[in-house]
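G., the chain you wanted modeled:
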Amino acid sequence: MTSSGERVVITAAFYQFSPAFGRREDNIDRVAAALHEMKLDLLVLPEFFATGYQFLSTAEVEALAEEIPAGYTTQRLVRMARERGMHIVAGLPEREGDRFFNSAIIVGPDGFIGSYRKTHLFFEEKLFFASGDSGFRVWDTKIGRIGIMICFDWFFPESMRILALKGADIVAHPANLVLPYCPESMPVRCRENRVYAITANRTGVEERRDGYPLRFIGQSRIVTPEGEVVIATAPDEEVLRVAEIEPETARNKRLNPFNDLFADRRPEFYHGLIEPLL
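Predicted structure as tokens:
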């Protein structure tokens, strides 16, 4: 809310498309073309949006992974964010020494802001990537407090909850979803934490490993703190969709005069979340 009492409304978007495997520059060019002359405050792109997803070897990962923030993809998105005065969240394979991570970055009009490494790896990601060690992070930006989780992280309620407890207004969710459950579940995740979520999924099929085709489900969406789906896409639609949202509304956790979602928590009884139950 501004000093005059006016609510801050931002334009938030995702771009759902089918990246071509290994064609990093072409995929980033497609994002730039999709933006055209659009004026956005926040854009969320899919997991591995510039590289494709189904790696076959460590050598392929090594060829496409990048240092953050010095790498090609981060620097291109930094320039794009500066030129357009916007924030961008996007997923990419990260290299640190001889280790690789499934990571996401956030950049803004003033440059690189930060990065997050995926906590919960899915399927064959475990063959090539190290489990994320960054912990869940939230950045206080000019357009609101933005947290990041990546794809399969959503399956663990703790991911969204810790981001909300850290103060996130918006959870940016780059994804390459193949399981069918997430689209129906995100309204619950948002409602129980009273945060916005922007799930940017991809479309298409990758069948680079014989017998293991990956069909991505699309269905990207923007969900409000009340669990309302304000924008949703079809499984195979290539589209950039935009919604106006009010990030500060996510800071009100009250359900009624007697109940506050966070004030009513009883963490002294939640020990089984962090240690085995006896």
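DSSP finds six helices and 16 strands in the chain.

Shout if anything looks off.
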